[in-house]
Amino acid sequence: MKQIFTHTLASLLLMGLVATQANAQQFSKRKQYNSIGVSLNAMNYFGDIVPKTSLPSFRAAATRPNIGVYYMRRFTPRFSGKVALNYGRISGDDSKAADPNGPDSRYRYNRNMNFRNDLIELSGMAVFDLIENRNNYLKRPDFVPYLTAGIAVFHHNPKGADANGDYVNLQPLQTEGVDYSLTQFAIPFGGGVRYRVNKSFDIGLELITRKTFTDYLDDVSGTFVERSTLAPGPAQYFGHDITRSQDPAQGFGSFTEPGQRRGKDGNDWYTTLGVTVNYILAPRVKNPKFR
What we know:
By secondary structure, the protein is mostly beta strands.
C-alpha cells in the first residue's frame, strides 16, 4: 500500500508540473473557469479495530456517511486545483469485527475495544484529468477519468461506548498514557470519473484514501499501562477493564499487563467513496472596448 501511495503521488505531481508548464501559455484565461460541488460518500477506516490486521481490511457494516462541499478552479487543459471541506464518521468494534474463534483475531475479540470518531477535514488538492480539454467548459469531454492528491488537516475526537452504552471522550483519559493531538494532518490521494450531464452540471464517482500521521483515530495504538496509573472510572474501564477475558487457559492470562501490546504498529488510514455533483460557474465574457 505504501508503494502504491508513493508511486501515485509522485506520478500525479510529475504530470501536474509537466501539464502546467506545457499548457499554461496555450490555455488562455478566457477558457479557465470555476466550479462548486457537493459530495455524498461512504466512509471507512483502517486501523487497529478491524477484522484483519492487513491493509485494506475494513468491516462493511462499520461504513458511515460523509458529506462534503468544494470549490474547484480549472487552470490548464488537464490541471485543476480544489479546496474541499468534509465531515464524516468512522467507527469500529472488536466484538463485531473480530472472529472469536479465529487464530489471528481471538486476541482482538477478547480485547473488546470500540470507538466512533467524527472528523472535520479541510483539504487542498491537485486534480489531473487523463483526457484534456483545450476548449472552454462548453466543449469539455463527456467522460473524464482523473487522478488527485494533496494535503489535508482534520480535527477528530474518538469516543467509546461504556458498559451502559454511553459514549465517552477517550482522548482526555490517556488510556495508553499518551496525550495525542486532536488536530492532525493527512495526505489524501485517489481518483475518479466525471460525466457531463449538460452544459453546467457534471456528476461523478470518486475514491479518496487518506494517509494520516497518527495511530490514535481509534484511541488504540501502543501498549497497556499499569491500571493503577489510570484515573478511576472511565480511564480504567477503557484502558483495562473493558477486556473480555483474562483466562490463562485461553492464552490471555496476562495480555493486559503493562508493556503488553494493545494495538498494532502503523498509523491509521481512512477513505471515502461516493458521488459528486459539480456545478460550473459560467465565466463572464468581457466585450472589447471600442473607441
